[in-house]
Amino acid sequence: MTPETGPAREEGATASGTGPAAGNGGLGARIAAAVSRGLAFVLAAQEADGSWTEWDLPPGPSREWATAHTGMRLAQLGPAHRPAVAEPLGRAADWLLDHRAAAGGWGYNAVVDPDADSTAQALLLLAAAGRSAPAGACAFLARHQRPDGGFATYLPSPLAGSWSRSHAEITPIALLALRAHGGLPPDRLADGLAWLRRARREDGLWNSFWWSTPLVATEAALGCLAVLGVHEPLPQWTATDNLEAALLLSITAAWGRAPAIERLTHALLETQRDDGSWQCPPRLRVTDRACDRPWELPDAGPLFADPHRLHGTAIALAALATATAPDPAS
């Protein structure tokens, strides 16, 4: 199933999430069972020290970024799952606090430089777990804001190339992470939001620098804007795999588009594996540092899937939880 979203909300829909999938008794029960199995898969993969391991990129596997991202997504599951995830999130937060780079942030793993993506996701996990940002972490992340207002993944250096340009999937989470820890002055927030608006495509999407789908950047951007009280029209897109279905479900559910939510939910449920997981298809791109606009090229860098299926599962779980979230006004 590859449904499309429309360019605007359906009449009467709200941006708070009406949870129409939960209102369908049979579908709601299927979602609950799927989330239970998926959550069990993710929690079983957590190491005793609190970390998760994912990916197999040229620098090796990731623990820092993988732990930050997995925990950040579990924190999005909502109050119903808080008792199940509170202790694992606390252990993940403590592990991250013990494995911060000397420069002040976190990176993909311990052998590469820290970056804004890993640092922002780690800070969001720490906030969700009730931990304060360690000294210097917010300042490290803030240094990645470029003069144009966007946030780069890496700080400028002779070898950074396009990796130190403003990126649409990094800017939203950097803004939210700094905001969560009180480290975002109003003028820097305004600069970041202005860059996001300029970076939006005419079709309503944002281009992803590190991914071969625009939905990674689009989900991050629309999610950030919604948190900040800025509600934008939904873009049109047809999901072609389970990662896109999950990201599109997350976007669509926040606006309460009931028919699209049910179609996307069914599509996601049908791709869950017997062990409770979802695999991210080869979508993560190690972009060539000489390439400024990788979305325009078919060979801008090698693509990778998540070998341990944690990345895809965490995104799917957060999306399904959004689809079943009750309307706060009801």
Structural descriptors:
single chain; 330 residues; mainly alpha; Glycosyltransferase; two-stranded antiparallel sheet; 12 helices; 6 strands; globular; disordered N terminus
What characteristic shape results from the CA principal axes?
Answer: globular
Read across the widest sheet, the strand sequence of neighbours is 1-2
Number of strands: 6
Low-confidence stretches: 1-18
What CATH architecture would you give? Answer: Alpha/alpha barrel
The CATH top-level class label? Mainly Alpha
Reading the helices and strands in chain order gives: HHEEHHEEHHHHHHHEEH
Major beta sheet summary = 2 strands, antiparallel
Write the layout of secondary structure elements.
Elements: H1 20-23, H2 25-45, E1 54-57, E2 60-62, H3 64-74, H4 82-98, E3 106-107, E4 114-115, H5 116-128, H6 137-142, H7 171-180, H8 186-199, H9 215-227, H10 242-253, H11 258-270, E5 284-285, E6 303-304, H12 310-323
Antiparallel strand pairs: 1-2, 3-4, 5-6
Helix pairs in contact: 2-11, 2-12, 3-4, 3-5, 3-12, 4-5, 5-7, 7-9, 9-10, 10-11, 10-12
